[in-house]
Write a structure and sequence with these properties.
By secondary structure, the protein is an alpha+beta fold. It has twelve helices and twelve strands.
Length: 396
Amino acid sequence: MNQRLDQKGDFLNVLWYYAIAFILIWSVAVLFRKQLKIDIEGPLLMRKTTRLRNFIDRVAQKRPRFWRVFMNIGIPVSVFFMGLMFYFLVISLQTLLEAPSVSIILPGVDIPGSPIFVPLIYGIIGLATVMIVHEFGHGILARVEGVRIKSIGVLLLAILPGAFVEPDEEDVKKSKRISKLRIYAAGSIFNLSLAAVALIITFILSSFIIAPTFHSDGMEISSVVPNSPADGILQPNMVIQSINGYNIKNTSDYTQFLNKTKIGDTLTFQTQQGAFTVTTGANPNNASKSYVGIRAKQHLALNSDILNVWGNQLPWVVFPLYDMFYWIFLLNFAVGTFNLLPLKPLDGGLMLEELLRYKLSKENTRRITYPISVFLLIILVVSVVYGTGRGLLMMF
């Protein structure tokens, strides 16, 4: 019982951090609105500046030909992901009320039914790179195409942070269609490029440093979902050595065993802290499948030859680097591809509109883009509201 209260307390503490930050930021914004030059529009806070325009100009004008060629490649890549994201979102209709495909990312909050749990610190770092790289991408290509930048800034939509580069709308309207496509594609292509770099770094760290230095000796619990069957019984950082006597040495062993379990099965987890019994429940995303409610990763131990040479401290430095670049990769890839949905006002929606106008009139283009945007928006709203809302209610 005390363990359950501790885990629920940890979750509530994270939400309190968000609530306190929200109150402080909005209080300062309202009280010192003029002094800080903050614009307030409904639930939106914006702080504009012109200080970084010279930096963007220098980057853009140093290699304008490179940026155009880069984005000429980026446009078909964007179109590919535009179609892929549209396909996946439509396919998700089959399981919309069982396993919503989209949920709000709140670093540090493990929501039941959510496909991922984003750690607090790495999540904040990853989302910061997403916003900065995305908006600088738009800004750089805008300047390459001769579009003036009116302002650069940060924003807060209720509790959701963001950044923006505000191009001159008249300049954009006067630009050639290919120039507009480059500008619209730039944000997501910059995100995908950073994701590719981060993925290469994680591969190098994993293959050439972690693999020859460590070996797996079980599964480590990284988090326990609040109000799940395991809540109050299992704890983060426990190392699962066996389940019902079945040895767990790696991810494959762990997955194979759990796939064979049924709802109501009694599982005995043998860990380095002792044995713990959990009765499986129904999966939040599929009531016919069993569910324990833990997220686990391989627990690694140092190889003896490395331990003798380097000791037990220095080799572990690689893991914070690996985790940071992993979340930079995942969040940039996820947000970059999401922005390519053919849904206005997302980048993909703006690109679809420009592509259609190569052959169609403005009115016919609108007849296609408007219903597509409404259709996708409905899916997203239902997925987020139902999936995230249901998950939050399951925590209490």
